[in-house]
Amino acid sequence: MTDGANTRPARVTAATIAAHTGLSRATVTHVLNGRGTEQRIRRDTQERVIETARLLGYRPNASARALHTGKTGNVALIQSLMGAYLPERLLLGLTEALGENNMYLTLAEVPDSVLDEQSYLPKILREHTADGLIINRIVGIPDTFVEAVNSLNTPVIFLNVNRPSDTVYPDDYNGGKLAANYLVSLGHTRILYVGPTIGTDYHYSQIDRQRGYRDAMKEAGLPTQEFSLPPNPETEEQIRNDSRVPILRSYLEPRLQRPTAIVAYEMAESMAVLHAVNQLQLQMPQDISLVMFHHQMDQRFCVPITTLCNGMQQVGREAVNLLLDKISAPGTSFPSRVVPIELLRGVTCGPPPSLCR
Question: Could you tell me if residue 204 is inside a domain?
């Protein structure tokens, strides 16, 4: 009779090693795939995983799985260099969800001119031997590119664009409503929306956040106030002569017409607000309240701004889940998944001045 204490499992997996070490399956998977240092896993933890895997007789079988299933376990993220947007929380969500499914991510940063070449997508699939593609191209997507994507036999999803199918994006419209409704609940009636100048290649969030703000104000029976900042400076001379803060300061200076609260589209707009308020020697939130959209509550300026968090980590996780659904059902188009926006309360919001006295 075989001694049960010395019997090894028929097939040792990452889950087996996780159970023996008391670590998470994701941690074990990162170490086994050689990504322990990249994921900042402690050296002694990596050594414990490797030693346990050796004792249990673990043998990686990715090649066998690829031969058997035709799947490599690799997903390629195609990152456009135009309007590049890849916050760390989005990348964390992608790698977490892939690690939990014993898969890994490769990244290709590509100029749009190359992306639009007819041969590029088939080439990237060959070179990366990818089971699926996640495309992070958020502005200026031509119809010909979408047609090229749809012609592929490989599952593909988009990130952060508002499309009816095969896409994951934040619910920016209801985020705009949430921002306005929160300020209204504090007693504000003069609420200004500060956004960027909208050019020809704009992101859907520039429209949806402002539209959500407008609808919430209308439902509350309040007038809208909207202000578009000049475009971001690009040349060295434009940077030295940045007019955004002076223009916004002149708008906020008249005391009787001044809004008591501001919804800022993103970090750039909120920084212009903070500088203008400071130059006018006003206090926040005693004189003006501020909320902004961002992927996290940013405290680098020592002012935790009340933030509409667009859930980038969850967007990344949902993107992987959607792609896995498409891999499991080739040729199927799935409805897009919209990630809710969460209000993170900082220190920049309070009742309007009339209610503080």
Answer: yes
